[in-house]
Write a structure and sequence with these properties.
Layout (H helix, E strand, L loop, with lengths): L3 E6 L3 E7 L17 E5 L1 H11 L4 E7 L3 H13 L2 E6 L6 E6 L5 E6 L10 H8 L2 E6 L9 H7 L2 E5 L8 H9 L2 E5 L7 H11 L4 E5 L5 E5 L5 E4 L14 H14 L4 H16 L11 H12 L2
Parallel strand pairs: 1-4, 1-8, 2-6, 4-5, 8-9, 9-10, 10-11
Antiparallel strand pairs: 2-3, 6-7, 11-12, 12-13
Helix pairs in contact: 1-7, 7-8, 8-9
């Protein structure tokens, strides 16, 4: 029996949230804003904490710095009881400054900072990758090196390409080697369907999920060859901050998928978790639990 339901690899950091009147800032010397707050965040963090909140046996591994930001991450995971192991990277902990407008839309200024040649030793990650039923790979360059070992271990892999343009070769390795591929439609426009189909045609993905925010999400399943649209969850919750919505969608989707639920249900549950995240201030501050997700799903299906 696998020791972990899911291993999340890479993607811990700190978000500094700045609430601004508009994402297009005026040319000025200064601008008064609401209190600026730091949050433990980034994509791997969101998927790991989201899966943990839903009751999955989750392991999270990454590089962080020996700095105040790294200490904040360790404290958060200790409080959340998330199983986290790390290696210290001399360049420090990754950071983002996220501008958020009154509609909850964001612009992220990402400081990945880790050098391109950083590599995680196999002796560190194999004891976690081998026993995991599934792994979710964040798109740091060093994480791509783990695909060969995941295949040898028989561990299925998912990844989130975020706002990939369908061309950037850095993302393409992840797109073509993962079993489940998530991405945003933000940079795709009319090319969305063709990019989804190319991922399936050229890679090993059994399903590609394109998240489109207020326009819902799209699913291409290899077995059917059909791109299907799914609406938003339609929850009566305010949209205050879209930071972390995609990660919450992924976590809820994986929770249902690992439980063997039909893809229609996994998409619906992902949409519910994403909408729930949009109603929370900050990044990854509160995650939907399994009971709450179940109840909201039952409410949606009974309409």
């Amino acid at each position: 029996m696998s020791s972990y339901d899911i291993l999340v690899v890479g993607g811990a950091g700190i978000d500094t949230i700045v609430r601004v009147p508009s994402l297009q800032l005026p040319v000025a010397d200064s601008l008064h804003v609401a209190p600026i707050l730091d949050y433990v965040a980034h994509t791997g963090n969101g998927v790991a904490l989201g899966c943990h909140a839903l009751g999955l046996r989750c392991k999270f591994i990454d590089f962080i710095g020996d700095d105040a930001q790294g200490a904040a991450i360790l404290q958060r995971y200790k409080e959340a009881k998330l199983d986290f192991s790390h290696l210290v990277e001399a360049s420090g902990t990754r950071r983002s400054v996220n501008l958020v407008d009154p509609q909850g839309r964001r612009l992220s200024l990402y400081d990945g900072r880790h050098p391109e040649n950083v590599r995680m030793p196999a002796a560190f990650y194999l004891p976690y990758l081998g026993p995991a039923h599934h792994a979710h790979f964040s798109i740091m360059g060093w994480v791509a090196e783990l695909f060969d070992d995941a295949q040898v271990c028989g561990t299925t892999v998912s990844t989130d390409l975020h706002d990939w343009d369908g061309v950037n070769p850095h993302h393409k390795t992840f797109a073509l080697r993962a079993d489940l591929v998530f991405l945003s439609t933000a940079a795709l426009g009319q090319r969305m369907e063709s990019v989804m189909r190319a991922i399936v045609a050229e890679g090993r993905a059994q399903a590609v999920i394109a998240m489109a925010g207020a326009d819902g999400a799209y699913l291409l399943e290899r077995a059917s060859g059909e791109v299907r649209h799914y609406p938003t969850a339609g929850l009566t919750l305010p949209v205050v901050d879209t930071n972390g919505a995609g990660d919450s969608f992924v976590a809820a989707f994986l929770h249902a998928w690992l439980d063997g639920r039909p893809l229609d249900e996994t998409m619906r549950r992902g949409a519910i978790a994403g909408a729930f995240a949009c109603a929370q201030h900050g990044t990854h501050e509160r995650f939907i639990g399994s009971a709450e997700l179940h109840d909201l799903d039952q409410d949606r299906t009974s309409l």
